[in-house]
Amino acid sequence: YKAKQAHAGHAIYDPAHHGRNAARLSLLTELRQAVEGDELVLYYQPKHAFRSSAMLSVEALVRWVHPKRGFVPPMEFIPFAEQTGYIRAITLWVLERAVRQCAEWRRAGRAVHVGLNLSARDLLHPELPDQFRAMLEHHGCEARWITLEITESAVLDDPRKALATLERLHATGCQLSIDDYGTGYSSLSYLRQMPVQELKIDRSFVMNLTTRPGDELIVRSTIELAHSLGLVVTAEGVETEEILVRLGELGCDLAQGYFVSRPVDAAGLEAWMDHSPWARGDHPSGTEPTN
Ligand code: C2E
Ligand code: MG
Ligand code: MG
Ligand code: MG
Question: How confident is the model at residue 290 (pLDDT cuts 50, 70, 90)?
Fold first, then answer.
């Protein structure tokens, strides 16, 4: 909200920015319509568990199905929504949908664990934990079926306030995860003060795991350190079988990436659960991914 005002103020003194600000204003209007008119949709990307697990972990990823522009990826509106503060409405929409969908799957006998993304700004809103708790109750979803992902930098903006919100979110009984680990500047010893249970290694380290010895060293030591702190480790961006196998050797717990599955809509995930060998927990060696 403040950022938006700052931009509006800027435009008054610099007419060159007028076009851009008009575009920003119309994007904000469209984004509002998107949330209110249900143009957003959640996709789900399943993870492979190296040790067989009774439940399937997935990450919910938002997409915008724009009436004219079609499929809009999150990187084209999430950063903007963060700047304007409108992310708050989007986060509540995503939370509600993810919680509702998870409860639905559980009622249908599908043991799905849903992770979803929070933004830095979400942690500055003290009402979020109570709103989350109310949604869980409303939809009959247990908190332990949900993981909230936050990036390292989210906590660095205002550590005291962010940490307080994290503590209260964790007190609901959900899991917390550090997303894109390795891209920020925080150390594991710093993260240790946070009530997190999972660490997701950023895909920039995973992509070249088998070709860059330095990256393998980073991934290996991150897994070891994370495990010594009692954290579950997910590797992001697993695109090849070779990388998947190496991650297994390094003791990684979960793998997420196109090699396992691309993000798919809810119906697509159900089909994947029913038909993919991955979903049966089979070791994927020698099997073709279905996506
Ligand atoms: P993220 O949370 O790190 O999500 C993982 C991103 O990596 C997703 O991109 C996913 O589609 C992509 N990905 C998965 N496997 C692979 C792979 O093997 N290779 C490559 N190159 N990419 C892979 P997506 O869906 O475009 O989302 C991008 C980012 O947008 C997310 O990164 C997250 O930071 C943000 N985002 C997505 N949904 C939400 C949301 O509901 N709320 C918020 N606040 N942010 C979201
Ligand atoms: Mg994420
Ligand atoms: Mg990530
Ligand atoms: Mg990422």
Answer: very low
